[in-house]
Design goal:
The protein has 163 residues and is mostly helical. It contains eight helices and no strands.
Length: 163
């Protein structure tokens, strides 16, 4: 029982770090988690933490198959089967989810499919949003100053007209 709990904590930590890396590469992890939930409900399956971690690490597009295997399955001797394991496992459900008829979801194609389906934030959009927030902040303070001056003028005008 204690050993299982340690494994769960290790898997949870692996998943946390993998999600963080994916977020750093602008993957929308919230949308991805919603997709995982929908897949589990629709196809009555369980996506393990290791499968999710593998998915997130693949989505970073930083690692070779051997590096992925070492990160997710450190005790595994044969890293070559990781491609087929992913394709036949989570990849099959992703094919159904994305309704892909002519292609399969594998380690190599995952990033392309995710980008095509809007799972990554656009870096230029984020920069535009940040500029927009800055503009709104400046406009708010400018409007506040203008309104303050306008209110002051109205008070002065009302006082002089009532005298």
């Amino acid at each position: 029982m204690v050993k299982k709990k340690k494994l769960d904590n290790k898997d949870q930590l692996l998943l946390f770090h993998a999600m963080k890396e994916a977020e750093d590469e602008l993957l929308n992890t919230e949308k991805t988690e919603e997709m995982f939930t929908e897949i589990e409900k629709t196809y009555h399956c369980t996506i393990t933490r290791k499968d999710k971690a593998l998915f997130y690490l693949i989505s970073t597009n930083k690692y070779t198959c051997e590096e992925l295997a070492n990160k997710v399955y450190p005790n595994r001797k044969d890293y070559k089967s990781i491609r087929s394991d992913f394709s036949k496992g989570l990849g099959d459900y992703l094919e159904l989810y994305f309704e892909l008829e002519d292609e399969y979801v594998g380690i190599t194609s995952l990033v392309r499919i995710l980008k095509k389906n809007g799972f990554y934030f656009n870096r230029s959009t984020i920069e535009q949003d940040e500029k927009f927030v800055n503009i709104l902040g400046k406009r708010y303070s400018e409007n506040f100053q203008l309104e303050g001056e306008s209110i002051s003028r109205n008070i002065i005008n009302n006082q002089t007209s009532s005298d």
